Amino acid sequence: MQISFYNPTRLVFGKGKLKELGSYAKEYGKKALIVYGGGSIKKNGVFDSAVASLKDAGIEFVECGGIEPNPKIDSVRRGIELVRSNNCDLIIAIGGGSAMDASKVIGAGALYDGDPWNMIFHGQDNVYIPTACMPIITVPTLAATGSEMNPGAVISNSETKEKSFVQTDALFPKVALVDPTLTLSVPKNQTGYGVCDIIVHLTESYFNGVDGTPIQDEFALTTIKNCMKYGLRAYKDGADLEAREQVQWSSILALNGFVNCGTNGAFPVHMIEHTVSGIYDITHAAGLAIINPAWMRFTITHGGNLDKFVSFSSYLFDVKSDGDKVKTALAGVDKYEAFLKEIGCPIRFSELSIDDSKFAEIADTTLKVIHDENGNLPARPALSKADIVAILNSAK
Amino acid sequence: MQISFYNPTRLVFGKGKLKELGSYAKEYGKKALIVYGGGSIKKNGVFDSAVASLKDAGIEFVECGGIEPNPKIDSVRRGIELVRSNNCDLIIAIGGGSAMDASKVIGAGALYDGDPWNMIFHGQDNVYIPTACMPIITVPTLAATGSEMNPGAVISNSETKEKSFVQTDALFPKVALVDPTLTLSVPKNQTGYGVCDIIVHLTESYFNGVDGTPIQDEFALTTIKNCMKYGLRAYKDGADLEAREQVQWSSILALNGFVNCGTNGAFPVHMIEHTVSGIYDITHAAGLAIINPAWMRFTITHGGNLDKFVSFSSYLFDVKSDGDKVKTALAGVDKYEAFLKEIGCPIRFSELSIDDSKFAEIADTTLKVIHDENGNLPARPALSKADIVAILNSAK
């Protein structure tokens, strides 16, 4: 087992924590760029509460709203201009993964002379890996990406139809201020998508990691189990604060690097989905819900780690093993897919009116972004172009 | 659930990592104080390997050996003098919890004009909480304390017979360089003690924390389960590297703040044991092995959280519940105590030739160090002087 772990983000989690935003912000700056999405925070009072706390602490602010669900590099460029023209010294992201991811690339881009798209890994020869970033405070209003406490960001380019990522130590937020009451008003569909996103973050490392990590494996299954239990409750009753808390805690755990540290797993489902939503601009988790079970079935029947799939089936879905590992594993995937359906996620491309016309292109683009020395997508086992197309076809 | 979590230590874990010591050290300084214990690292080659790596990186060093098993404030004072007289700019702790804990207080003490005993919380009016510390790299040679990746230190004062702690953000090591091969030569008794120490770190938060933390509770039980499984293997066959790895990983998890974050649990067994080993200078984990089951039995029969004890019994020891929670809980404690015996730990004070003559003094001293607004020891439920004496008496 080889572990390399580092996460210096300070996590402050709990009901009512939004009121403390100003007291944390003043540790890092005097003038904040507030990055947010479609403006729901202006309707539900979150923006006003945040601003009141900042004013109490003597922090000025400039707004950068309108960050798209799949945040665009153009929005990042706009944010960088706002930082520079207003001399902001701090970024506060209030929103979902989009606002948080955009903030990271704005924060690094503002300290970089080149174009921020150079930071996003899209198969270019000279990637710019940022080594510095403005201080960032994340205030998630959605439990999904785990972006609040990690150094990753996913950005799309609407001109080139590419969607990819940057991940490096400089991008860790200083503080993740997580107030689960902010998620009480998240609508049903986004609640379900968030739960799906969290689960897939956990299954990626669980299934694609190395062997010999028994504690991490159980941590992953425990987190998935609780995310499903409380996720279903939050989906059915959005006002259930205990459920919202546990889902948000799962979201943080799923992608802050701790649960899966040392597993060194690949993220093939994410890689394929990024390409799909780069082309079709669909909700990330909707794409994951379609691709993840399809990837699982393919992997189970093509040399995947059957023991892990059997544990997944038995621990989470109480599937009794009759000795046939493939059958046991597939039965678990069926139940997992049924759960995704129950929380409102699509499970076939046809539900999103996506046909098979671009499946080959999706495979090519994904492999352009990331491939191993044999030209395959890193996964366990690695996936060829034909494999990726087969997975996509099985989810038509 | 209210979480406040911060841990900026970089964890580098794996077989052979000791060779990378120099490359990490040169990021932080040019002249290191190497802090170590009784000298076993000079006999088993660890010191030579560490020094070779430092030399390759151009790092000079000064030695501060002879740190005692319960590290004394006098040794800390000696370390501070060595730092000052040699202009060291970095501390490297190679050893168990003693060397690592002493290093933290040396590192903070070297930047402080007063006496370092002022930092150790022993009931004094004006505690000095350090806000700065020299950079520290920890290289544990024992899986036990978790000190490698946390900001706590326990120091003893042989003049006053006090033993207590300091814990504050400034004391986080920069890097925890954890090479499980360094623990292959740990003798049987210390291996067993280490396993006991790890388990007690986990049971303290699990039993004394708040309710409503289902994920953390399962993380704790999972870690205990694996620590017991691999701990027994390591105890029986010290050369079993996989077992050593998993025990060391458990040790880190048990006390780096992540598994128990948001549980806000008290550490009553540790508090009592610190007083005991302050007076008798016994091995910390030997004291824990005696006090922990005694504390559990007392708590089970005096208003403790029975549901958690039942889960402990059923998950870890496969005790079948017949509906009588107290009986189920006590049966688990019996099996836990049998396990401690199996890994060579004492389970009664008489095994260490400690009689009851100082039990009242132990209770008084413990309550002097820490007590709630009613004068009781923080725990779930809180413990009066009479309660502490009753626990100690039950372990005679």
Give me a quick take on this structure.
With 396 residues, chain A is an alpha/beta fold. Chain A has 14 helices and 8 strands. Chain A has helices spanning 21-25, 40-43, 46-56, 73-86, 97-109, 188-208, 214-236, 241-255, 268-280, 284-300, 306-317, 325-342, 359-369, 385-394, and strands at residues 3-13, 31-35, 60-64, 90-95, 136-140, 152-157, 162-167, 175-178.
Q: Give, in order, the helices and strands of chain A.
A: EHEHHEHEHEEEEHHHHHHHHH
The average pLDDT of chain A is 96
| Helix content percent band of chain A | 40-55%
Terminal-residue CA separation of chain A: 38 Å
Identify the notable features of this structure and list them briefly.
homodimer, 396 residues, alpha/beta, Rossmann fold, 2 domains, six-stranded parallel beta sheet, two-stranded antiparallel ribbon, 14 helices, 8 strands
Can you describe this structure?
The structure is a homodimer of 396-residue chains. With 396 residues, chain A is α/β, with parallel strands linked by helices. Chain A folds into two domains: 10-183, Rossmann fold; 188-394, Dehydroquinate synthase-like, alpha domain. Chain A has helices at residues 21-25, 40-43, 46-56, 73-86, 97-109, 188-208, 214-236, 241-255, 268-280, 284-300, 306-317, 325-342, 359-369, 385-394; strands at residues 3-13, 31-35, 60-64, 90-95, 136-140, 152-157, 162-167, 175-178. In chain A, the strands form two sheets. A six-stranded parallel β-sheet of chain A has the order 1-8-5-4-2-3, sandwiched between helices. In chain A, strands 6-7 form a two-stranded antiparallel sheet. The radius of gyration of chain A is 20 Å and the shape is globular. The model of chain A has no long low-confidence stretch (mean pLDDT 96). The interface between A and B is medium-sized, with 33 and 33 residues. Strand 1 (3-13) of chain A pairs antiparallel with strand 1 of chain B, so a sheet runs across the interface.
